[in-house]
Amino acid sequence: MKPRGLRLKLTILYTAILGVVLGGLFAVAYYLLANQLDATATDELVERATALKGYLRFENNRPVLAFDPTDPEVAFFVRTASRYYQIYDFSTGEILDQSADMAFLGLQFTPNELHSLTEFPILSDIQTDQGKIRLFSDRITSDYGAAYVMQVGVSLEPSQATLQHFIGLTFWLVPFGVLMAAGAGWVMAGRFLSPVRSIINAAQRIDVSKLDRRLPVSGTGDEIDQLAVTFNESFARLERAVGEMKQFTASIAHELRTPLAALRVEAEYTLLHSESLDECKTTLASQIEEFDKLSRVIQQLLTLARAESGELRMLREPVDLTTLLRDLTETFSLVAEEKKISLELDCVEDLKVTGDRQWLERAMFNLVDNAIKYTPEGGRVNVYGRSENRKVVLRVADNGRGITSEALPHIFERFYRADPSRSKEIEGVGLGLSLVKWIVEQHGGSIKVDSQPNLGSRFSIQIPED
Ligand code: ADP
Fold this sequence. Notes:
This protein has about 475 residues and is of the alpha+beta class. The protein is built from eleven helices and 14 strands.
C-alpha cells in the first residue's frame, strides 16, 4: 500500500486553499481598482468643471467660455475639459451652449430634472448609446441674477474597459495559478511523503524473525524522523521481549528435559536390571522426589506466567508487616536451626504497608529461603524492617557465599542461577527472584542487591507506604 491517497489529499487541499486565496486576492484587487478608477474619474470631473467655471463669462446674458486661444495649454485644457459640456437656462430648460460630443449624445433635461440634478449630490451617472457618462451639474447665477445650469461630463468607458480587461486577466490567471499550484503541490507532497514511503517499505520487511532491523532515520529531527525513532524504540522493546521469550522457552525446555531424561534412564535401568521388589521401591521412592521437584518448577512457572499475564489480582489492603515477618522467621526457624544458622528479626512495631499480604509474604519467603539456602552451616541471616521517608524498607542479609559481580546483574532473570555447578547441590531453578521483583514492582516499589563473594548478600526492598 502506497501513501498515494495522502498525496492526492494534500495536493487537493493545498490547491483548494491557494485557489481560494488567489480568488480572494483578485476580488479585493478588483474592488480596490474599481474604487480607485471611480474616484479618479470623479476627481478629474470636479477639477474640470471647477476650472471651466472660471472661464465662464456672460456676454449679452449668454454664457460663453472665454479663454485665450493663443495660449496652447489653456486652449488644450478647455477643449479637453469641455468635450462633454452644455449650459442651460435654468428657468426655461433651453440649452444655451453645447459641445459637439454632448450634442451627439442628445442629452437634454427638463427644468424639473435639472432641478433635481443640481440638488446634492450634483454628480450623476447616465447610460448613453456611447457608454456611461458621469455628469457634474452646477447651478450658476450671473451678475444680473439669471440662473443657469452648467453640465460637464466625463466618459466612464475607459475605466470600465480597464475593469473588463482586469476581469479577463483574472479568468486566465486564477485557473493558471491554481493549475501551477496543483502541479507544485503534487511534487511537494511527493517529496514530503518519500520518507514515509521508505519507512513503509522498511517496516514491511520487518517481521518477528527480523526484529533486529530498523526504520531509516534521516537525522533531520522532523515529525517523520520522530515517528521512525519511536517505532525503532518499539521494535527494540519487541526484540528484547521476543528474545526473552525465546530464552525463556529454551530454558523451560532445558529445565524439564534434563530431569525427565534422567528419570527415564533410571526407570529403564531398573526395569532391565533390578532383581528385587525392594530395589524397585527404592528407585520409585527417589523418583517421587524428582517428580515433586518437577511439579514445583511447573507450579512456579505457572504462577509467574499467570502473574505476568495480569491474570492474578493484586489486593490493596493494609498489611501488618511486623506480624508477617515474625510469622515468617518462625516458619524458617526449624530449617535454620537444622543448618545451625542464626536467624534474627529486627523489625519495628506496627510496620504497615498497603498491598497484598499473600504476595508480600511470598516475596519475603523467597528471599529468606535463598539466604538460608546459600549460607553455609554456622552462618547468620538477618531480617530487617523499618519505615524511612514514608517508605517501608525490608532487608534480608546473610553472610553466605555471596554473588560474583558478573552474576549480579542477571540474578533477577528467569531461570538464571549463578554458578550452576556449585548450585547443583542446592535445590532451585532460578525463578524465585524474578517473582520477587515482579511482586515488588506491582507494589510500586524497587529491589536492589549488594553482594560480595564469600562475604554475603543483602537484598533491600523499598515500598511506598500507601
Ligand atoms: P534459585 O531457585 O536458584 O534460588 P533465584 O531466582 O531465587 O533462583 O535466585 C537466582 C540465583 O541468585 C541463585 O541461583 C543464586 O545463585 C543467586 N542467589 C540468590 N539469593 C542468593 C543469596 N542470598 N546468596 C547467594 N546467592 C544468591
